[in-house]
């Protein structure tokens, strides 16, 4: 790899202040009849500690051109989007970009409280577009795991609800038996 001659080094020193790297490369290549890339100058200047004195970062006094403007794809609160992979619809509930599933949004809106940590809202009839409040059920992640592992998700809301009640009953029986053992 060719390094710069003392004459070329001096040219870089003399012409760097206030000059962008791409302009320096263009001027240098014209003057010396070379074809060096901008990256060569950037690396050389970094190694030698040579600065052009130009600001490279955005500051309060030097904001980017699009400062203060919203991106073109920004969605307002209440917007909905469909997630192809999961099949769920998401609703934007806060800025800058907080999205939750529509079933969770509908459940929270109806009940007037947020979903507790470790819980989620499911569709009792497995239809991801049936947002009827009677079809939405708040369950724990543990209950969801048991429903899935036992294959107890049904297209019939009453069957899924019965399976969920069975799981809750089994959990309560285990809880009572554990209390008896401790006491």
Describe the protein:
The structure is a single chain. With 183 residues, this protein is an alpha+beta fold. The chain has 2 domains: 6-48; 80-182, Homing Intron 3 (I-Ppo) Encoded Endonuclease, Chain A (Alpha-Beta Complex). Helix content is 43%, strand content 13%. It contains 6 helices and 5 strands. The protein has helices at 6-16, 21-32, 38-48, 102-111, 141-149, 157-182, and strands at 80-82, 89-94, 98-101, 119-123, 136-140. The strands form 2 sheets. A 3-stranded antiparallel beta sheet has the order 1-2-3. It has a two-stranded antiparallel sheet with strand order 4-5. Helix 1 (6-16) crosses helix 2 (21-32). The chain is elongated, with a radius of gyration of 32 Å.
How much helix is in the residues?
40-55%
**Overall average pLDDT:** 91
User: Strands across the major sheet, in which order?
Assistant: 1-2-3
Largest sheet: 3 strands, antiparallel
Number of helices: 6
Q: Radius of gyration, Cα only, in angstroms?
A: 32 Å
Question: What would you say about this model in short?
Answer:
It is built from six helices and five strands. The protein has helices at 6-16, 21-32, 38-48, 102-111, 141-149, 157-182, and strands spanning 80-82, 89-94, 98-101, 119-123, 136-140.
Summarize this structure as a short list of keywords or feature phrases:
single chain, 183 residues, alpha+beta, Homing Intron 3 (I-Ppo) Encoded Endonuclease, Chain A, 2 domains, three-stranded antiparallel sheet, two-stranded antiparallel ribbon, 5 strands, 43% helix
């Amino acid at each position: 790899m060719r390094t710069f001659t003392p004459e070329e080094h001096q040219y870089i020193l003399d012409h760097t202040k206030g000059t962008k790297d791409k302009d320096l490369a263009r001027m240098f290549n014209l003057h010396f009849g070379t074809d060096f890339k901008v990256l060569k100058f950037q690396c050389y200047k970094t190694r030698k500690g040579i600065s052009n004195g130009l600001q490279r970062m955005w500051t309060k006094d030097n904001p980017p051109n699009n400062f203060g403007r919203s991106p073109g794809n920004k969605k307002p609160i209440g917007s909905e989007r469909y997630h192809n992979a999961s099949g769920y619809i998401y609703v934007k509930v806060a800025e800058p970009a907080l999205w939750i599933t529509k079933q969770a949004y509908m459940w929270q809106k109806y009940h007037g409280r947020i979903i507790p940590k470790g819980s989620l809202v499911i569709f009792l009839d497995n239809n991801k577009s049936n947002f009827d409040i009677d079809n939405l059920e708040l369950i724990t992640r543990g209950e969801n795991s048991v429903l899935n592992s036992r294959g107890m998700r049904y297209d019939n809301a009453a069957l899924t609800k019965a399976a969920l009640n069975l799981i809750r009953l089994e959990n309560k029986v285990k809880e009572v038996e554990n209390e008896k053992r401790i006491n």
